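Chain A, query sequence.
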Amino acid sequence: MTHRIALVDANNFYVSCERVFDSRLEGRPVVVLSNNDGCVVSRSNEAKALGVRMGVPFFEVRALVGSPGRGLVWLSSNYALYGDISARMMDLLGEFAPQREVYSIDECFLDFSGTVFDSAILGSGIRKRIQHCLGLPTCVGFGASKTLAKLANHVAKTCSEYQGSFDWDALPPPQQDTIMAGIDIGEVWGVGRRLAPELNAMGLHSALDLKRAPPKLIRKRHSVILERTVAELNGTPCIGVAESSVREGQVIATRSFGRPVTALAELREAVSSYVIRAAERLRAQACNCSRVSVFIDTGKYRQDGGERYRRSIEVPLTVASDDTRRLIAAALHGLEKIYKPGLRYKKAGVSLSGLRPAAAPQGDLFSGYERQRSAKLMATLDAINKTWGMNTATFAGAGITQPWRMQSARRSPRYTTRWEELPVVH
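Chain A, predicted structure.
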């Protein structure tokens, strides 16, 4: 069977979501900031042209805001909006292929293996469909493996002559190699910035260099995973599409606080709220978890001059569960074990691991009836929040005012998930 994989990626996703509801942002340099308005996490092409780098602290580029001829616009992250639009985008993409794998909030692999199609027509059709239904610009890359599809998407995004859609198989091998020779090895999926210097030291600088590297040598010096990357660059698929997210091993929810937190009561609220979000995602994946981890962190620089205090603890569950109540209880039990009074905490988070399919629950002689009640309660809770908006029904332990919540001075309305923030047409 011929393997044909596509990767669809929304361009400048957070900024593009904001532009869908605010046309005044079109054509202007726009950045979206991370938690507590700290660093740049999304940039429009116009902002990139001003030299704004990804991840740069906002204070370093604040001088560009409102400056003559530049006028950088900055916005706080609006995760509710981005998550909802992402879900709509993934639903649309699911109409195009028998199998899909949601890779990130703005990326999705589609498996067309065994089907016959014109990649130019299909790529253009996908882009037009997403643009028409959601207003999002996208790029599409096609290849015989996921790594090649990912690299093809990079080419589609950076080379305007391909008009947002690129297929490796549409070019003869010599031309493919010419393009790969011009792509830095750090752009290859699975390499990144950390591994690139080590490969550079071996004389490997481009995607083509890695493609031609001896697989056994790569495995000996690095790992079998990188050896698979070499195989995938040569068109041999080693990573399947639509592999269960259970294999990723964990669901994480973490945020920095809007101000330093000292009281255990506030930490309990924060941790509870993070468990609530993580549990929702766990159930969306149809999984249970058997381990709950919690961490707290004072940050690298403490105002009292002391050393950084960062502690984590893992709490095992006797029976794997997706019940928010059980997960909160486990997380708070762990929090009390690692909490140290008198410190100013800047961040906390939870991780749900030991994932397994909810359809095949762990056997237990005594909790069959309770499991059924739990499943009905959690399904009802999720349905209410999906219909009426996040936190319509939630747990009191997460707090009401939540003074520790992250800063978001310029967050746009949650247009699609809050009735009171729906856009109004006059």
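Residues 243-247 have pLDDT under 50 and may be disordered. The radius of gyration is 23 Å.
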